Amino acid sequence: MEKKRVFSGIQPSGRLHIGNYASAMRNMIALQDEYSCVYGIVDYHAFTIKFEPKEMDDRVFNCAVDYIAAGINPQKSILMLQSTVSEHTELAWILNTITPISWLERVPTFKEKKEQNPHNVNMGLLDYPVLMAADIIIYKAAVVPVGDDQVPHLELTREIARRFNSLFGETFPEPKEQLARVSRILGLDGVNKMSKSLDNCIYLDETKEEIWKKLSTAVTDTDRKRRSDPGNPDVCNIFTMHKAFSPKKDIDHCTRECRKAGIGCLDCKKILLDNMFTELEPIQKKQKELRKKREYIYDVLHDGKKRAKKIAVETMDEVYEKLGIKVFH
Ligand code: TRP
Question: Which intervals of this chain are the motif 'HIGH' region (predicted)?
Fold first, then answer.
């Protein structure tokens, strides 16, 4: 039997942070054997926010490096740059014609971005989820590994697929999100989601010393004022990070000792630092090697384009047939 398909995408923001890694990337890596996976560097989506064209090539390159360094195997999975398979935008246009504007206006990320970028509320920002739906259903993906902030987008994707199917006949399966064990890591401020624009991230390529600098001042349980106060791991973002990076015995130890003030926050953070860095170190080694191989990375994306395009064109042929267009298709 043919393997079911997976699609997911990451914006080429320049640097991946541990939130991206733990909430989505790990699942992307884990699904590679059981599914036929397509992973995109979604530059079309990145264009919706003001950017510097001079930086784009490096952003794309680094994103591809991060994918491979973290464990995406480009021989197994398809790693592609979204804009090289322009069928994504082609399908997005068709989907636009069946998506009510009111569905898009209520998407939470649109509301957030409108507030963050009040001088650049462009059509692309509103249309972002339709393009994302196209990314997914053009490959007829069944499973989409993402962080929990993407769930509303997946709900919309299902609604759009359902509407297409009911108007033009069964074409697209309804994809399901796959959330990680820890699907949301807050930033160092302990309040906002980890996000580059808020400068509250730990990046995948930071040294142990750099990470320690950030962790040591990161917000914990704000009710624990003194070392002698017992803490509450349930409300502590450092504890969330433990759940994402530490083995059970360390999590149990920190929970127990925190609750009775047996350890202080710094002790707890040191244990986290060691576990986190154990996972990041081999990734960083690969990042360093891959950053010297620009040609290789471009070759991977070129190959990904060819393989992805084949699937995307097939879907578009079917879409035009369903729409009744026959002249050239
Ligand atoms: N919106 C996603 C994010 O910001 C990126 C993305 C674009 C995506 N297209 C996708 C994720 C399709 C999953 C599937 O993280």
Answer: 12-20
pLDDT digits (tens, 9 = 90+) for 100-116: 999 999 999 999 899 98
Shared domain for 48 and 182, answered yes or no, is: yes
Q: Ligand 1: distance of its center to the CA of 120 in Å?
A: 20
Q: Are residues 229 and 81 in the same domain?
A: no
114 is catalytic: no
At 244-258, the pLDDT tens digits run 999 999 999 999 999
Could you tell me if 219 and 140 lie in one domain? Answer: no
Q: Whose CA is nearest to atom 11 of ligand 1?
A: 9
List 4, 114, 196, 286, catalytic entry: 196
Please state, in angstroms and rounded to a whole number, the distance separating the CA atoms of residues 175 and 207. Answer: 38
Same domain flag for 131 and 264: no
Q: Is the CB of 25 under 6 A from ligand 1?
A: no
pLDDT at 44 over 90: yes
Comparing CA positions, the residue from 209, 162, 160, 217 lying closest to residue 189 is 217
pLDDT in tens, 90-102: 999 999 999 999 9
Same-domain status, 253 and 135: no
Domain hosting residue 236, numbered range: 208-287
13: which residues sit within 8 A by CB, 6+ positions away?
46, 59, 63, 196
Nearest to 315 by CA among 135, 149, 127: 135
| Whether residue 193 lies in the annotated active site | yes
Give pTM, 2 decimals: 0.95
* Per-residue pLDDT at 116: 87
Both tokens assigned to 35: 């599914």
- Atom 8, ligand 1: residue with shortest CA distance: 9
Question: In this model, does residue 195 exceed pLDDT 90?
Answer: no
> Does residue 1 register a pLDDT over 80?
no
Cβ neighbour number for residue 279 with a 10 Å cutoff: 17
Distance 131 CA to ligand 1 centre (A): 9
Looking at the structure, tell me whether residues 229 and 180 fall in a common domain: no
- Domain count of the chain? 2
7 ligand 1 Cβ < 6 A: yes
